[in-house]
Design brief:
alpha/beta, Rossmann fold, 8-stranded mixed sheet, binds S-adenosylmethionine
Length: 409
């Protein structure tokens, strides 16, 4: 039956759900009768969704593909601020479970026709009466379309307990609306290629319900008391920058990347300078006798878009704060801030960057807190030689071990 439609019918059903989610920006979405998690796999890419739940009575079916719902390596390398938790349950939609209350959207794609009619009643009560999501999408075969499906005799699937006409489906939906306070719209996917839409309707009929009254108001993280009849099979929390540990790891790696890059530029510049020009530079800023140096504020507040100025002033900072710390290159935080848009986006302000680094035990700042201290290449090589000689040194002891206690000397 599938090649009859382009794109295939199951893809059209899933696309309908995706379009709905984009329109209504639903954050908490559950797929009842999720099967092999095909729809969930598509939905995990939709940034508006924060909580995605799948339920199916057949746990083995869910487990088959559930690992495809995990984060991709890019989600770990470049996490965003969005949050996503995916949960998969084994359970029957004819039984309530308090963890499924308070959702924005419940989807049930080609499930209802697998239930016996008394179970359809239970399903209606559980879904619209207990879970009571803001929106519900139900899809089911339209039996009026069956004569158009080549080679079909009887139901479309051996497990179907019924297949409804448009009137039967709409009557059930209207009763649900009256009983539980919803309104409904009818539509579908899968058009007759012969254009006889009025006569046959859609191949898959769809009812979209919208809750009329306020229902559960469940806040993120709130635990709902009540019966829990489903078995949790799998829970996946995607890495998010809203998680402080993730933010810290990403920020630190971005800062260190840029600091190393700036150190490399600084080292190249240094090696290009002659001893003479260094002397001139020094005299220009310190005065021939070295008595008057620019105030500290000058290099701190320098416009960050002029890298050469920053490095020039950095030389001064180095002389003021770090000259005695042989083996260190001070990378100004202003320059770091200006070099990496990602650092700027993650920290929001230069003051936050400084605060973050002050509290980060694996890095060292200059005494005035305006520069990140990185060891020079020569120093790293010297230490590698020492290590080869057998002396084991902790990484974050390495800079400080080389620094004299008295910074002003
Ligand atoms: N919704 C999926 C999709 O669109 O690909 C799968 C649809 S499949 C035709 C019907 C699914 O409903 C099956 O995975 C079946 O195990 C599940 N199912 C049947 N009865 C159920 C029940 N009482 N509670 C939960 N799931 C049920």
């Amino acid at each position: 039956m599938e090649p009859f439609f382009k794109p295939p019918l199951h893809k059209q059903r899933h696309q309908f759900v995706v379009d709905f989610i984009k329109k209504y920006k639903t954050k908490k979405v559950m797929d009842l009768g999720c099967g092999e998690c095909l729809l969930l796999k598509r939905l995990k890419f939709h940034k508006e969704i924060e909580h995605l739940v799948g339920v199916d009575i057949d746990g083995a079916k869910v487990k088959k593909k559930m690992h495809s719902l995990g984060p991709l390596s890019t989600d770990y390398l470049q996490p965003g601020f969005e949050q996503l938790c995916v949960e998969l349950f084994q359970g029957s939609v004819t039984e309530p479970d308090a963890r499924l209350r308070g959702f924005d959207l419940a989807v049930s794609v080609e499930l209802i026709e697998h239930l016996l009619l008394p179970d359809v009643e239970l399903f209606s009560e559980v879904l619209f009466g207990d879970m009571a999501p803001v929106h519900v999408i139900i899809t089911t075969p339209n039996s009026e379309f069956n004569p158009l499906l080549p080679g079909l005799s009887g139901f479309r699937h051996p497990d179907h307990k019924f297949e409804w006409t448009r009137v039967q489906f709409q009557s059930w939906a209207q009763v649900v609306c009256e009983d539980f306070g919803y309104r409904v719209e009818f539509t579908g996917v899968g058009l007759d290629p012969g254009g006889r839409h009025d006569e046959f309707g859609f191949c898959s009929q769809i009812a979209v319900f919208h809750r009329l009254r306020g229902g559960f108001n469940v806040w993120p993280g709130e635990t709902i008391q009540g019966e829990t009849s489903y078995t949790l099979l799998h829970r996946i929390n995607y890495p998010s920058l809203k998680d402080n540990n993730v933010l810290r790891r990403v920020l630190l790696s971005e800062v260190l990347f840029w600091a190393e890059e700036l150190k490399r530029r600084w080292t190249e510049r240094e090696s290009e300078d002659t001893e003479e020009s260094k002397e001139e530079d020094w005299n220009e800023h310190t005065g021939a006798c070295g008595e008057e140096r620019p105030p500290e504020e000058e290099w701190k507040s320098v416009a960050a878009d002029d890298e050469s100025d920053l490095w020039r002033l950095n030389g001064i900072a180095q002389s003021r704060n770090c000259a005695s710390q042989r083996g260190c290159v001070p990378v100004p935080l202003d320059l770091l801030w200006a070099s990496s848009p990602r650092v700027a986006a993650l920290c929001k302000s230069p003051a936050n960057l400084r605060l973050f680094l002050m509290n980060e035990p694996t890095v060292k700042l200059s005494q005035d807190g305006c520069a990140l201290l990185l060891r020079t290449d020569e120093d790293e090589e010297r230490e590698a030689d020492l290590d080869r000689g057998g002396a084991a040194v902790e990484p974050n002891q390495r800079v400080s071990a080389k620094l004299p206690e008295n910074w002003e000397d």
